[in-house]
Design brief:
Radius of gyration: 18 Å
Shape: flat
Length: about 120
């Protein structure tokens, strides 16, 4: 917490190394979900009861932090299982409105589609 109680409440959120935030996502898997209507006067940055969410398939990747923030994202597309790229298994991730969490990521790297993986595999044979 920075400042005094009379000042604004700004916090410094530092993710733990084992915190699941470092994902590449499959944009073709995105499902937009409306969870209800936004109520006038409601706080748009609540940590619960978001008016909309996005469900997307993602895989954890080697994406580190730099100076207490996410480092530059890996280049897209990410080819999981190719050469030295190691990824976790597919997971369903719930993306919430920007500002609805303590750790905010505005850009995720994308996963390579099956078509691109086949082309890359054939190119290195």
């Amino acid at each position: 917490h920075f400042g005094t109680e009379a000042m604004s409440n700004d916090y410094n959120a530092i993710p733990k190394e084992d915190t699941s935030w470092n994902y590449a996502v499959d944009p073709h898997s995105a499902v937009f979900k409306v969870n209800g209507e936004y109520e006038q006067g409601g706080a748009p940055f609540n940590h619960t009861n978001w008016p909309s969410t996005i469900l997307v398939t993602g895989r954890r990747i080697a994406w580190k932090t730099y100076k207490h923030a996410a480092a530059e994202p890996p280049k897209s597309p990410v080819f999981c299982g190719m050469l030295t790229v190691k990824c976790g298994g597919p997971e369903t991730i719930v993306l919430v409105p920007h500002g609805g969490t303590d750790l905010r990521i505005g850009l995720f790297p994308t996963l390579a589609s099956h078509k691109y993986k086949e082309e890359a595999t054939n190119a290195i044979k």
